Amino acid sequence: MYIACFQRDLVTDHSKYIDLQWDILTCGHVVKETGHIDNGCDHGNRVSILEVKSPEDQIVVILLQESYTTFTSSYVTFAPVEACTLDMILNGGSPDHVPILPSGFSILPDGPTRDGGSGSLVTMAFQILDNSSSATYIPPESVATIFKLVTETAECIKAAMFSPSNLGT
């Protein structure tokens, strides 16, 4: 039950996950939710527009993000979107040809552990555009970048799960 409550807080308490900065696009930047549309009965289930700003208050990237949780699982899906593209869509333009490469993660409760506790299963998915790769070859630099992205994201999610504010201490 604790894991389910944590999942719910991590994904639906937007002040927490905005401050967590679990994604490489947000690290070291200020993230502000500029708008959202509720998606479901829970107040935290929503599609949000997030502005990621530098310390100098310059917009670095805009993220379109969906967060959703139920009593069995939670997920966050996000995609960077260019400001002019988002503006076009919000003003009635067609989203049919908008290039979006969503990424995200889900958290599901896992069964009991050997020591009687419980755990979580975290699944991450990334879609990354890499112009230097082909169908048969991925350069070592690209592999290293992808490895770093996955490793750092997993560490950030793990740190968030075991932070004092989430453990009730």
TrEMBL record:
Gene coding for it: HDG2_0
Protein name, per record: Homeobox-leucine zipper protein HDG2
InterPro entries in UniProt: HD-Zip_IV (IPR042160), HD-Zip_IV_C (IPR057993)
Location of the HD-Zip IV C-terminal domain: 21-161
Alphabetical UniProt keywords: DNA-binding, Homeobox
MF-aspect GO terms: DNA binding
